[in-house]
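Researcher: I've been going back and forth with a colleague about how Acyltransferase 3 domain-containing protein might be arranged in three dimensions. Neither of us has a model we trust, so I'd like an independent prediction. The organism is Paenibacillus cisolokensis, in case that matters for your notes. Sequence below.
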Amino acid sequence: MLKRERLNELDLVRAMAIVCVIMVHATSSAIAETTGMRSFVVYNFLTSFFGSGRPFLFF
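Model: Here is an independent structure prediction for Acyltransferase 3 domain-containing protein. You can compare it with whatever you and your colleague have in mind.
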C-alpha cells in the first residue's frame, strides 16, 4: 500500500479552521451578554467573520 504525502498547507488550513471555531464559541457567549450595547456589533462581526472557518474542517 502506498502512503500519500502529507500536505503542510492543508494542515495549516485545518489549524486556522480550528482557531476559527474556538473564536466562534468564545464570542457567541459575549453576544448573549451584550445585546443592546455598543459592543454587540463588534462581537457579532467577529462571530460572523470567524464562522467562515467551519467549512474548512470537512476536507
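Researcher: What would you highlight for our discussion?
Model: I'd start with this: The first helix runs from residue 8 to 33. After that, consider the following. DSSP finds two helices and no strands in the chain.
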